């Protein structure tokens, strides 16, 4: 490993977005979908992230039915507002039993959802506001136009998007500058390289990459016995049966490379994403300070041409077995159409 100040240089999200630390913190797992989490440890992890220099914190108003925003409000209370940027997703509709029942990107939903998020988070603005998915009933121009009104009113600083395809990116950017596209990107999830990433770069839109460890699958810590009650990964195709066997075998090939470099599998995987361009900011979903520290160590991993070639040979494009979501969720992804 080598350590240089340049590895921690701020990155700018697109042509018009904010400058952020080269890693962002994804807060979803602190409240939802990955099984039980320790609230006190989650808050301590947010504090540790801020102390390490992380500025971008990503959440969604539907994570834990609003609980994630309330948790972040507790964690950020008393922290200078200039020390962090909040990226907030909205639009996912949920029933009282927690089921996902659709998406609402209507102008009224944009403004109502934002009002509730501002109140839960205890802030007067969010730095990046984005629909979690494309609403097929509402032209993206209307959704982005409504957020643009909130930018004009001072409640939002920048407009982001999530999991949309190249055409939708173009249509959105024609209405208002877009800072960044939040989308899954990892060693075993590289679909954006074909059309979406080139289009984002053409339009001057940055990428905040989530799932850089494929929800823990390529962290080097996941085993066939991992998982807990309430963990949605139990229904994810990549974590099931022979798919899991195949994918964990890929991880072992990465482990051999990581060990030769004196780093962990997670650090290697995160560093690979970060190295794909200065316009890409990986989001790490650490719920504990231990995992956060490991992720921060990825900033000290230097990858050269031989490393990239070795990684590509070990995990070529399309090597993973299984889709990244189940069929129902895949159907909602404009980015997959």
Automatic annotation (TrEMBL):
Pfam families (alphabetical): Aldo_ket_red (PF00248)
Domain NADP-dependent oxidoreductase: 22-314
Matching InterPro entries: Aldo-Keto_reductase, NAD(P)_OxRdtase_dom_sf, NADP_OxRdtase_dom
Record has Oxidoreductase as a keyword: yes
Highest taxon above the source species: Bacteria
SUPFAM superfamilies to which the protein is assigned, alphabetical: NAD(P)-linked oxidoreductase (SSF51430)
Alphabetized UniProt keyword annotations: Oxidoreductase
Annotated protein name in UniProt: Aldo/keto reductase
Organism, scientific name: Catenulispora yoronensis
């Amino acid at each position: 490993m080598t350590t240089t100040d340049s590895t921690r240089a701020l990155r700018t999200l697109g042509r018009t977005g904010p400058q952020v630390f080269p890693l962002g913190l994804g807060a979803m797992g602190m409240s939802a979908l990955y099984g039980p989490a320790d609230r006190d440890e989650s808050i301590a992890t947010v504090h540790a992230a801020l102390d390490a220099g992380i500025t971008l914190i990503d959440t969604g108003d539907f994570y834990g039915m609003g609980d994630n925003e309330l948790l972040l409000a507790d964690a950020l209370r008393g922290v200078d507002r200039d020390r962090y940027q909040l990226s907030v997703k909205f639009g996912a509709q949920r029933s009282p039993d927690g089921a996902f029942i659709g998406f609402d990107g209507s102008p009224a939903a944009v403004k109502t959802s934002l009002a509730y998020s501002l109140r839960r988070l205890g802030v007067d603005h969010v730095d990046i506001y984005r629909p979690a998915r494309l609403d097929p009933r509402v032209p993206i121009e209307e959704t982005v136009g409504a957020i643009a009104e909130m930018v004009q009113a001072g409640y939002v600083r920048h407009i982001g998007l999530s999991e949309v395809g190249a055409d939708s990116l173009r249509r959105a950017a024609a209405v208002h500058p877009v800072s960044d596209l939040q989308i899954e990107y990892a060693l075993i999830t590289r679909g954006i390289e074909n059309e979406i990433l080139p289009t984002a770069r053409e339009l001057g839109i940055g990428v905040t990459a989530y799932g850089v460890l494929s929800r823990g699958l390529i962290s080097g810590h996941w085993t066939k016995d991992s998982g807990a009650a309430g963990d949605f990964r139990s229904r994810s195709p990549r974590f099931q049966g022979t798919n899991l066997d195949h994918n964990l075998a890929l991880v072992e090939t990465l482990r051999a490379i990581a060990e030769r470099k004196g780093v962990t599998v997670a650090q290697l995987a995160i560093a690979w994403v970060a190295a794909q361009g200065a316009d890409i900011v990986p989001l790490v979903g650490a719920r504990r300070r231990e995992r956060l520290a490991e992720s921060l160590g990825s900033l000290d991993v230097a990858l050269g041409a031989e490393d990239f070639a070795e990684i590509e040979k070990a995990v070529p494009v399309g090597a993973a077995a299984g889709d990244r979501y189940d069929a129902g969720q895949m159907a909602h992804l404009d980015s997959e159409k």
